[in-house]
């Protein structure tokens, strides 16, 4: 995995900044990073977020660009957004994520944008897709999603009833292989997007599904990734 310095953040919208200040008077909030009043993410923590490096690694031989490493302030922001439906935090997260996705599509203008689907349980609990939310905030097109399929057999029964976090590395691979299917990608370049990449097993399965369907994954982009070292 390599880390690069981030691109300079885009200039802040002064009107949006003023609107947030007024909103903070009506609906008091506290910064999720330091607890400072009136902002979901204060200027100091926003500057800290913008200064963090991007990440890059290979998954199944394909380049993965991640906006951040999944730790510290980034982890807090992602969890607040995903688990507590803090959609007000989408703005700070969407900027750099959108830059990476836009860059991948610029490098491959005809590529299909595909979403690695979230778990059914997580999607039901949240009621929204964080990746779709972030891409919308970044003014990018809505991605298509790979299809989840049920796979029977002994390997699946070994891991039954457990989420990915509770499984061993071997169980994750066994439980994941063959669970995704891609359509409409024959002869096409594909950019895969996801929110958090941990071991890379699910992303690797998405790459396999695209290849089996006759497509070619040219880039993977994630909001954050866990250091694979």
Describe the overall structure.
This protein has helices at about 15-25, 45-50, 70-85, 90-105, 120-125, 130-135, 155-160, 170-175, 200-210; strands at about 1-5, 55-60, 60-70, 110-115, 145, 145-150, 180, 190-195, 215-225. The protein is an alpha/beta fold and about 230 residues long. The chain has a seven-stranded mixed β-sheet. Strands 6-7 form a two-stranded antiparallel sheet. Helix 4 packs across helix 6. It is globular and about 50 Å long.
List keywords for this structure.
229 residues, alpha/beta, 7-stranded mixed β-sheet, 9 helices, 40% helix, globular
Produce a short descriptive summary.
The protein is 40% helix and 20% strand. It is an alpha/beta fold and 229 residues long.
- By DSSP, the count of extended strands is 9
Q: Which secondary-structure class do the elements indicate?
A: alpha/beta
Low-confidence stretches are 8-12, 19-25, 153-162
- The string of secondary-structure elements, in order, is EHHEEHHEHHEEHHEEHE
Number of DSSP helices? 9
Helix content: 40-55%
Topology:
Elements: E1 2-4, H1 14-26, H2 43-51, E2 54-59, E3 62-69, H3 72-83, H4 90-107, E4 112-115, H5 120-126, H6 130-137, E5 144-145, E6 147-148, H7 154-158, H8 169-176, E7 180-181, E8 189-197, H9 201-212, E9 216-225
Parallel strand pairs: 3-9, 4-5, 4-8, 8-9
Antiparallel strand pairs: 1-2, 2-3, 6-7
Helix pairs in contact: 4-6
